[in-house]
């Protein structure tokens, strides 16, 4: 397996100005300590709850934007045993309305089925992004507001909670509020 630290944002997507989010770090070992960095600057030390640590950021300003990384350390001298990929965090003012996410043929499917995920938005000069909970960054970028993501022969790895959020290329550019979460269950 991959021995690196997993880092992701909860909920995923662009964080609303003044809002809150949780940065989660996970590693496959118990004990030890996570150290969280933003732009290479140490933000805090997190004790593990099992294999996961959470860092709550609230009342966020734009200064919370930037690249975050998480290091897993062990022992008194803080030897770095593993580090995460970079999580790019973006804080922006969000505006409604929100896009609508839909899953066809339905949110509960049998393994091996084909599934379509669609993010529908009112503004066709927007680019929409699909996020999967527990995963860092964008899962998929919709090339147009009528685009559909086709997943063929889905397995349990495709299951989870999805949300989409759109970037409107206007002056000034704005981000939408994220869609409601939709859960895909693969049986």
TrEMBL record:
It comes from the Eukaryota. Coiled coil: none annotated. Gene3D superfamilies: Immunoglobulins. The keyword Signal applies. Residues 97-165 form the Ig-like domain. InterPro entries: Ig-like_dom (IPR007110), Ig-like_dom_sf (IPR036179), Ig-like_fold (IPR013783), Ig-like_Receptors_ImmuneReg (IPR050412), Ig_sub (IPR003599), Immunoglobulin_dom (IPR013151). Keywords: Disulfide bond, Immunoglobulin domain, Signal. GO terms for biological process: cell surface receptor signaling pathway; immune response-regulating signaling pathway. This is LIRB5 protein. The lineage of its organism: Eukaryota, Metazoa, Chordata, Craniata, Vertebrata.
């Amino acid at each position: 397996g991959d021995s690196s630290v997993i880092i992701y944002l909860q909920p995923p997507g662009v964080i609303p100005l003044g809002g809150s989010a949780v940065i989660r770090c996970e590693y496959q070992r118990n004990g030890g300590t996570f150290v969280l960095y933003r732009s290479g600057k140490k933000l805090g030390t997190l004790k593990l709850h099992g294999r996961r640590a959470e860092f709550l950021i609230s009342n966020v300003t734009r200064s919370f934007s930037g690249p975050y990384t998480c290091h897993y350390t062990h022992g008194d001298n803080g030897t770095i045993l593993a580090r995460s990929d970079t999580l790019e965090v973006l804080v922006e003012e969000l505006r409604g309305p929100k896009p609508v996410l839909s899953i066809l043929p339905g949110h509960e499917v049998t393994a091996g089925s084909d599934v379509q995920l669609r993010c529908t938005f009112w503004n066709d000069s927007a680019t929409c992004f699909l996020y999967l909970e527990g995963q860092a960054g964008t899962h998929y970028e919709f090339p147009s507001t009528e685009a559909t993501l086709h997943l063929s022969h889905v397995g349990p790895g495709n299951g989870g909670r999805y949300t989409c959020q759109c970037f409107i290329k206007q002056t000034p550019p704005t981000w939408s509020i994220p869609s409601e979460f939709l859960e895909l269950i693969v049986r």
